[in-house]
Design brief:
The chain has helices at residues 3-25, 103-118, 123-159, 171-223; strands spanning 36-45, 51-57, 62-66, 69-73, 81-84, 90-93, 165-169. The chain is α+β, with helices and mostly antiparallel strands. It comes from Suillus placidus.
Length: 224
């Protein structure tokens, strides 16, 4: 593939993979990379029944900021969180809303495969790299839709408790969106680079064929 398209394509894929990788680490190991974040005061979570000021949702668990400090729970994907207000009304964010977050690591793996394929100069391999890039983009789109669903559901459910809270999107939410854009750009760049190589190859073959025909005509003209 032409270096004009190869270098940007590899850069886009590497950037997308790197972002998806750090998002996939997520909570509780990478506490800053949450998907949805809740700021509150005076509410209590089911674990320990202690008042928290912040609740963070990640892929592999969640974290709560208590008066004694931050506590993280390594529950694995598909966890549930219960929040109770001062009137003992409670809501539960069930595993059906957090289990789908595991699509993000799968998208990161597919993006890595596309990155490895994109460094090849073989036309067929670059075509496969383009297709794999679009597959990674599709998985990332699904993951981003799940992120939106989790954020919307948490915001809606906490709103029913009539408490003073603010639900916002976390860094992992927006890095997933950026990764989606990068993967789309990468797939298009690799695809256009392959198309340009095919057109360049067809042009060169045409020039060579015309040269052979012209040479044969000139030889015949000299013999005559």
């Amino acid at each position: 593939m032409s270096r004009t398209y190869c270098i940007p394509g590899v850069f886009f894929l590497f950037s997308a993979f790197f972002l998806l990788f750090i998002v996939s680490i997520s909570l509780p190991r990478f506490q800053a990379m949450d998907i949805t974040r809740v700021h509150s005061s005076g509410q209590i979570a089911s674990n320990g029944n202690q008042a928290f000021t912040q609740l963070r949702f990640g892929i592999w668990g969640y974290c709560v900021d208590l008066s004694s400090g931050r506590t993280c729970f390594n529950t694995g994907h598909g966890y549930s969180v219960t929040v109770i207000n001062s009137q003992n009304a409670e809501i539960t964010i069930g595993p059906s809303w957090t289990r789908g977050l595991a699509v993000l690591p799968v998208a990161a793996c597919v993006a890595f495969i596309a990155l490895l394929l994109s460094v090849s100069q073989h036309i067929t391999v670059t075509l496969v790299a383009s297709l794999v890039s679009f597959l990674a983009a599709l998985l990332t789109l699904i993951a981003f839709a799940i992120n939106i669903a989790l954020y919307a559901y948490v915001k809606q459910e906490l709103g029913t408790l009539n408490i003073n809270e603010t639900t916002i999107t976390g860094p992992g939410f927006w890095l997933t969106f950026v990764s989606l854009l990068l993967l789309i750009l990468a797939g298009c760049t690799v695809c256009f680079g392959r198309r340009r190589d095919r057109m360049a190859g067809a042009t060169n073959n045409s020039y060579q064929l015309n040269g052979v025909k012209g040479g044969g005509f000139l030889s015949r003209f000299r013999r005559n």
